[in-house]
Amino acid sequence: MRYKSMYFVLSVIVTLLIISPAVSYSDPGSELVAVAFTGHTDSVISMLSEGVDVNTKTYDGETALMAAALIGHTETVKTLLSKGANINAKSNAGETALMATSFAGNNDIVKILLANGASINTRDLKGETAIMEAASAGHTDTATILINSGANLLVRDFNGETALMEAAFAGHTETINKLLGFGAKINEKNCKGMTSLMYASIKGHLSAVNALITNGAVINVKTENGQTALMAAAYAGHHEIVSTLLAKGADVNVKDTERKSALIYADINGHSRITQDLLAKGAVRNDIRPVSLGSSSRATMFLSRGVTCKKI
Predict the structure, then answer these.
(1) N or C end of the chain: smaller count of CB under 10 Å?
(2) Considering the chain, what is the average pLDDT of its residues?
(3) pLDDT lower than 50: segments of the chain
(4) What is the pLDDT of residue 295?
C-alpha cells in the first residue's frame, strides 16, 4: 500500500537538482539517469557514444531505463534497450523498470518491456510485484495487461498483502472489480488478519466497500486482535460506511481482544454521530471505559498497515 515508486521519482528529481560537473565525474550514473528522466534521447545516445555504461546505476541502484520507463519516455526506453540496457536490473530496493512503469500506468512501455523479456513476477525487497504497483495506483488497464501476460494475481508480499488489498486501500473501485473478475480472492487476510474490506473501510472508500460487499466480502471477519471492518470505520469516523456495514449485517456488539466494540472506538475518537447510530442499532456499552488517543490501548491494528510480519 505503497508509494515506493514515488520515492524513486523524488530521488531522481533530487538528482536533477543537485547535478553538477563534480557529480558527473564521481557518479556518471546519476547524470545518465537524469538525462533519461527528462526524455532527451539524443543526449542519451551522445553519452552512450562517449562511453557511459548503459547499465550504470546511481547510488540508489537506479538505472536510466528505470527513469525513462517511470516517466513514460517511450523512445528513450527503446533506445536504451537497443543499446543493451539490462531490462531486469534492480535498484537497491529491488525495484525494476517494469515495476516503475506499472506504477505510472505507462501501458505502451509495459508492453515493450514485456515483449523484450521483462520478468513479470519479480519481487522487490518487500515482496511486491508489478501487478501490486499497478493495483495500488489504480491503473486498471495496466493490471489487465500484466495479468493477461502472466502476472500472478494471487501473489502476496512479505506482509501477506495482495494486489486486491492494494487497490482496496487506495479506493480504486474499477481496479477492484477487474481484479475480482480475474479471480482475486476477496477474503484473503494479511499476516495481521486485515482484509480488503477492512482497508477500504478504514480509509473511507464507500464505493470500494460496496463493490467488495457485492462481490462476497465477509463483513464480520476478524483480525488476529478480533477487530472488524465496522470497528475500523467507526474508529476512523466514516459514517456512511458504518451505516452501510450495519445495513449489511455487521455485528454491532462484537468485541475485540481488548473487549472493545465499534461503539468504544467511535467514542475514543469523538464520533458522536456514529455513536448515536450504533446505539440506535442496539449497541450496548461494556465496562471498558473510552480511552484517549494517546493511550497504548488505542486501535493499533487499524494503524498497522505495512507492519512487517517477517524479516525481509
Answers:
(1) C
(2) 88
(3) 1-3, 6, 10, 17, 20-25, 291-299, 303, 311-312
(4) 40
pLDDT of residue 60: 87
Q: What is the value of pTM for the model shown?
A: 0.89
> Residue 230's closest CA among 191, 271, 190, 192?
271
Q: Look up residue 290 and give its amino acid.
A: P
Return the CATH number at 195. Answer: 1.25.40.20
DSSP, residue by residue, 179-198: HHHTT--TT---TTS--HHH
Q: Quote the CA–CA distance of 55 and 62 in Å, as a whole number.
A: 9
The letter for the amino acid at 180 is L
Question: What whole-number distance in Å separates Cα of residue 12 and Cα of residue 32?
Answer: 11
Asked if 4 contacts 93 with a C-beta cutoff of 8 angstroms, the reply is yes
Domain boundary among 97, 120, 152: 152
Domain that holds residue 276: 160-312
- What H or E segment, with its residue span, contains residue 235? helix 229-236
- Amino acid at residue number 248: K
Number of domains in the chain: 2
pLDDT at position 296: 37
Last residue of a domain, one of 152, 182, 215: 152
The verdict on 72 and 164 lying in the same domain is no
